[in-house]
């Protein structure tokens, strides 16, 4: 008799050309993908992909879809258009997983790939700060995979 497959968990990857984002103020956005591979252990009702970047020198604050100086957008395949990503935060403190809501389903053994793009506005700050990508089960108020740090610089 064949033994059952070993339990596997959620695996994630963040992919961009060159392994980092090199932005130019007022320049074109840079695209990247976020892929979630669910193992055979659990189905999720609400897995949220959330983003945070530390404030750069001279940056006054943050808002939905981006902070002053940055705009993060998610590609909506249903409409074929880019929309501001609601779960993007520019701040110097960490938002606890229990304060997030939303997210989409991810069945056992399913794969979900989301497209994003980040742009630096013309009047935004310059410098380097990593973009932290977190994966949160909003039903359980916790991260379901280790966060990924994507290198970023703006000139």
TrEMBL record:
It comes from the Bacteria. This is Uncharacterized protein. It comes from Streptomyces spororaveus. The lineage of its organism: Bacteria, Bacillati, Actinomycetota, Actinomycetes, Kitasatosporales.
């Amino acid at each position: 008799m064949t033994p059952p497959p070993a339990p596997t968990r959620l695996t994630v990857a963040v992919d961009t050309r060159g392994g980092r984002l090199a932005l130019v103020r007022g320049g074109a956005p840079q695209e990247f993908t976020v892929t979630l591979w669910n193992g055979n252990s659990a189905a999720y009702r609400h897995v949220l992909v959330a983003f945070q970047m530390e404030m750069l020198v001279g940056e006054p604050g943050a808002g939905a879809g981006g902070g002053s100086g940055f705009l993060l957008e998610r590609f909506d395949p249903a409409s074929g258009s880019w929309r501001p990503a609601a779960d993007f935060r520019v701040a110097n403190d960490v938002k606890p997983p229990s304060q997030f809501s939303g997210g989409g389903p991810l069945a056992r053994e399913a794969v979900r790939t989301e497209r994003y793009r980040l742009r630096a506005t013309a009047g935004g700050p310059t410098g380097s700060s990593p973009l932290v990508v977190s994966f949160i089960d909003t039903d359980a108020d916790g991260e379901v995979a280790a966060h990924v740090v994507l290198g970023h610089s703006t000139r």
